[in-house]
Design goal:
The protein is of the alpha/beta class. The chain has 7 helices and 14 strands.
């Protein structure tokens, strides 16, 4: 039961470039009868578009908050609402510009023209419009401008804050392990059969003793410390080499 992160694991960096040896490996795993899935922080709709050319139709997305099995969306939830609203209010009090994703679409909404102008590297479409935090019901992601050390810093409010671009931070669910557990329960598969591949900080809770974990050669040091095995980088055959080493092909 294989679960692969996308950015930096299947794809090179944050691009959509997937090495040919990785595509070959995924196909061989499926032909050998293995369950091949994705575990990512990306939105469900974004993950679906990424996975279609790979013929992968099951995945844990939204950082563990959505499950798609055999092409069918089984469940999807947003950030804890009260904590998310409290964060937005805190950002307002600190005069920090923010944007939110409110739908299962790669669209984010902001009140700030400055935010839209400063955040052009994101693949999310940015729309400027009036927003009242108290009237927002489901919030999937929060983006905010990286605050200067000269201004008050927002509280975390129990949410995960990770670097997004050179100018901003991203708040999204980061419990992929919980999503994998729910997926395994729904398909009645044993947890000890799980193998995970990852490279970033948002993969750390997937690297649990309950299953086998493989860190890419380009992974962050914190993830490598928790891995059962460290393979080569994603662009030098890391996934294929690991699967060959353990005889999964």
């Amino acid at each position: 039961m294989f679960f692969f992160d996308i950015d930096g694991t299947l794809a090179v960096g944050t691009t959509k470039l997937i090495p040919k040896d990785t595509i070959f490996c995924l196909n061989q795993l499926k032909q050998a009868g293995h369950f091949v899935a994705i575990a990512t922080g990306r939105l469900q709709c974004d993950t679906l578009q990424f996975s279609l050319p790979l013929h992968i139709n099951s995945f844990v997305a939204d950082g563990g908050s959505s499950l798609t099995y055999n092409g069918k969306l089984l469940e999807m939830s947003g950030l804890p609402r009260q904590q998310a609203i409290s964060l937005l209010q805190d950002l307002d009090s600190c005069h920090i510009s923010w944007a939110v994703t409110l739908e299962n679409k790669t669209i984010r909404y902001t009140r700030s023209t400055a935010f839209a102008n400063n955040e052009k590297k994101s693949y999310f479409k940015t729309i400027v419009c009036p927003l009242d935090p108290l009237k927002l019901h489901t919030i999937y992601k929060i983006f905010y401008i990286n605050p200067s050390h000269a201004v008050p810093q927002p509280q975390k409010h129990g949410l995960s804050h990770i670097p997004y671009t050179e100018n901003s931070l991203l708040v999204e669910p980061t419990d992929k392990a919980a999503g994998i557990r729910r997926m395994m329960k729904k398909i009645n598969a044993p947890l000890h059969d799980v193998v995970v591949f990852g490279d970033g900080l948002n993969d750390i809770n997937m690297f649990t003793p309950a299953w086998f974990s493989i860190a890419m050669g380009n992974a962050c040091p914190e993830l490598k410390e928790k891995a059962n095995y460290i393979t080569d980088t994603c662009d030098t055959g890391g996934i294929l080499h690991a699967c060959q080493k353990y005889g999964w092909l």
